[in-house]
Amino acid sequence: MPLISTYYDGPVTESDRAQNPAGRIEYGVYGNEDFRVTAHPSIPYAVLVKKGRAHGHGVTDEAEIDQVVNCPPLASGVRWDLIVIRRNWQPELGGPSTFAVIDVGTNPVIPDAPTRKVGPGVEDDQPIALVRWQGGTSAPMEIRDLRVWSNNGGMFAVDPLARQYLNKIGTKVKIAGEVWSYERLSATEADWVNEDGSGPWVELTLEQGWANNGASRARARTMGRGSFIQVQADVRYTGSTIYEGWIIAKFPGGMIPKEHTFVPGTTNGYRSGAVYSVYAGGIAVGPFPLGTVCQLGGVGVLK
Questions:
Q1: Which long-range contacts (CB under 8 A, 24 or more apart) does 206-212 make?
Q2: What is the mean predicted confidence (pLDDT) over 95-108?
Q3: Which label site among 15, 16, 253, 274 has the fewest CB atoms less than 10 Å from its CB?
């Protein structure tokens, strides 16, 4: 069967243009405030989308005034709503684009199809914000900015969650000072890679007697393309007394520091000046064990 080729001489539709990836940035907004989502000052269960311009798959949308987007009320519990720009190329509609609200549940995630429309040239959703509602409260509790900006071969985003909908092989985006690229890792796998050399955070298993301090934990990651290890911990000892040198959590293979390093911290949530030890055995209580709660963070040199 012969190939079906588009963009030679002959008719080309808007759907053809939307589906062609050559030289295309899939989504973006133009200005710093364009299409930023904020809480509505007076309407319950509503948000404002700031005026401006946004683009997606060959279509540009402009709002000359701020737009009101209404969300369903919530009697109890927690709900996250995804605010999107919905584009429809189908003949019976053919635009203009609209705003839509997608209930994504109790966690801040950007769903794939079919929950979110993913179909350039047919029907497609551009995420611009996630909004958290608390039952009985008509104002949003939290708004996470999912917009991206693209120009002159670069892309910038505010929130790491934006990577969930930018996950196409070859995508590169800068978020919070770090450059991420979505790369082919094997014949069947692709994932985000930190080009600045910072690996993903690895959750560390706490030694016997140690527990997380609330929702916090002990974790570590490589930095500087494998030259350094960064550690963070907010833990507590379940007994009455801790002693210098007690290991809080051991490091996995590939994260063994080259030298014995001391990192700063606090104990019992307020007593500063404590120093903790990072070495081949893992993270340990340092020379100044002042309390049962240990909070620390620092960088050591890897082997």
A1: 206/235, 206/248, 206/249, 207/246, 207/247, 207/248, 207/249, 207/250, 207/282, 209/237, 209/238, 209/239, 210/235, 210/236, 210/237, 210/238, 210/248, 210/249, 211/235, 211/236, 211/237, 211/238, 212/236
A2: 94
A3: 253
Tokens of 249: 């959590």
How far is 209 from 237, CA to CA, in rounded Å? 6
Give, in words, the CATH class of 14-148: mainly beta
Please tell me the predicted confidence (pLDDT) of residue 5: 59
Q: How is the beta sheet containing 142-145 ordered, strand by strand?
A: 98-105, 78-88, 123-134, 142-145
Instruction: Give tens-digit pLDDT for 43-66.
Output: 999 999 999 999 999 899 999 999
CATH 2.60.520 residue ranges of the chain are 14-148
pTM of the predicted protein model: 0.68
Question: HSE (CB half, 13 Å, CA atoms) of 291?
Answer: 18
Task: Give residue-wise pLDDT tens across range 148-179.
Answer: 999 888 899 999 999 999 999 999 999 988 88
Nearest to 156 by CA among 19, 242, 28: 28
For residues 101 and 71, give the distance between their C-alpha atoms in angstroms, rounded to a whole number: 7
| Whole-angstrom distance, CA of residue 280 vs CA of residue 232 | 16
* pLDDT at site 6: 62
Fold that domain 202-301 belongs to in CATH: Immunoglobulin-like (2.60.40)
Looking up tokens 């808007």 gives: 14
Tokens of 9: 């001489």
Domain limits, CATH 2.60.40.2460, in the chain: 202-301
Q: How many CB atoms lie within 10 A of CB 135?
A: 11
Measured on CA atoms in the order 127, 129, 135, 140, is the torsion positive or negative?
negative
